Amino acid sequence: MLLEDYFIKIQQIINSNQLIQSHNIIYQRRDQFLGYIKGKIQFLNKCCLYLTEYIEVEYKINRGKYSYQYMNEKNKLIFRYDNAPHHQKKS
Q: What per-residue string of b and e applies to 39-77 under the rule 16 or more CB within 10 Å gives b?
């Protein structure tokens, strides 16, 4: 899979979702297989999803670093997923 294919797939998912009111997504290409996505998606219920992904797609989709933060209309955190080292469980 090429990076542009991944970007197109993400944009198709966003465009086809009827619950999305607006979005502002930045797609950056570092090379043929490495890239970056950052942005905000606002839903009809006024909640927002903030997302960041550093992606490598040479052999498979690998999100080297990611964060997804979903906030309600009052900017209160509903959930957050990320792989920041300080959020990882220690064994």
A: bebebeeebbbebbbbbbbeeeeeeeeebebbbeeeeee
Q: pTM for the complete prediction?
A: 0.83
Is-contact 70 47, C-beta < 8 A? Answer: yes
pLDDT digits (tens, 9 = 90+) for 63-85: 889 999 999 999 999 999 998 77
DSSP string, 25-52: EEEEESSSSEEEEEEEEEETTS-EEEEE
Domain boundaries, the chain: 3-87
